[in-house]
Amino acid sequence: MKIEAVSENTILLTFGDTISEAITPRIVAMEKLIEHHLAPYLVDLVPSYTTLLMIYDLDRADYRLMLSLLRKLADTLDDHVQEHDDGRTFDIPVWYDPSVGYDLENLAKEKNISVGEVIHIHSSKTYRVFAVGFNPGFAFLGKVDARIATPRHHSPRSSVAQGSVGIADAQTAIYPLTSPGGWQIIGRSPTQFFDPKGDPHTASLLQVGDEVRFKPIQKDEFLALGGQL
């Protein structure tokens, strides 16, 4: 692990240089250790694909102290990874259909497989949450099976509906809010992924380290669960 000061009150912990499902549990474990042991100094923690950014209170510590404390925690990390590798697992219902999955048929055609095969491949894997960002509650999940991995659109759509499930390269995600976006859309979920009125720490349904499985549903169930067309 590389630990370095990147500004007067931020330190970046780097766990590797390649996105890997094996790195995420280490990031989550280190995040929990910092929250538990260094709470008096902590302003914020931002976990991502291969890094963990710590923002600390300059009135309580300087970078020399924080580097020292973080290195001591890092020495104990291997003993804590397993206990924090049991994150939550969510079964997310998705209506895979061209009427809401704008790119579903084109993706199947480009990959020379059927729409049913695209759906089966996408819903047969458990995905890890690598990062949350872009929009509030937007969770980047990986990795997508190479058979359906596909690049983003060259020009993003001006509006992608809330709940839309998309693929971009080797990642998949669900749009928590209606917004512009360039991902290849293959379905839509009725699940609410961001609650702006909720607790700031739990407003996003999905957090780094969580796991997601997609469950194919039909239109009637999508509507019954509150899905919007």
Which term fits the overall shape? Answer: elongated
Q: Per CATH, what is the topology of the largest domain?
A: Cyclophilin
**CATH architectural group of the largest domain:** Beta Barrel
Q: What's the assembly state of these chains? A: single chain
In order across it, which strands form the biggest sheet?
A: 5-13-6-7-10-9-12
What's the total number of strands? 13
Rg for CA atoms? 19 Å
Determine the fraction of residues in helical runs and give it as a percent range: 10-25%
Give the class from helix and strand content and strand pairing.
alpha+beta
Question: What descriptive keywords fit this protein?
Answer:
single chain; Gyrase A, domain 2; Cyclophilin; 2 domains; seven-stranded mixed sheet; 13 strands; Cyclophilin-like_dom_sf; 5-oxoprolinase subunit PxpB; 5-oxoprolinase (ATP-hydrolyzing) activity
